[in-house]
Design a protein that fits this description.
Helix content is 40%, strand content 23%. By secondary structure, the protein is of the alpha+beta class. The chain has a single domain (10-101), classed as Winged helix-like DNA-binding domain superfamily/Winged helix DNA-binding domain (Arc Repressor Mutant, subunit A, Orthogonal Bundle), CATH 1.10.10. Helix 3 crosses helix 4.
């Protein structure tokens, strides 16, 4: 084993990678780059049914890639700031085992 390499949890890494292995979820991640959005906002922007968008957001939330907060009757979803590293152009999700560069919105 090489000295200086951090030990990563392969199970958690697999959860992250499985969550982003869907084209729709990748599109949702790009939409969330602009800032927090409600399920309805995402559904409208992506021209998808609210139930389907909600399913994908839940998957990203349970994988700890997206975070949520409630404002009144609305739930807003955003990228998990602990995983997001700001760069000059967009951001990089840092999972510890790998990094994922988000394309510009």
């Amino acid at each position: 084993m090489t000295e200086g390499l951090e030990m990563v949890n392969p199970e958690q890494c697999a959860v992250y990678l499985k969550a982003i292995a869907d084209p729709t979820r990748l599109r949702i991640l790009r939409a969330l780059q602009a800032g927090p959005l409600t399920v309805s906002d995402v559904a409208l922007a992506m021209e998808m049914e609210i139930g389907l968008v909600s399913h994908h957001l839940r998957t990203l939330f349970h994988a700890n890639i997206a975070a949520s907060h409630r404002e009144g009757k609305y739930v807003y979803y955003a990228l998990n700031q602990d995983l997001l590293k700001r760069r000059a152009r967009g951001g990089t999700l840092d999972f510890g085992c790998c990094q994922f560069q988000l394309a510009g919105a």
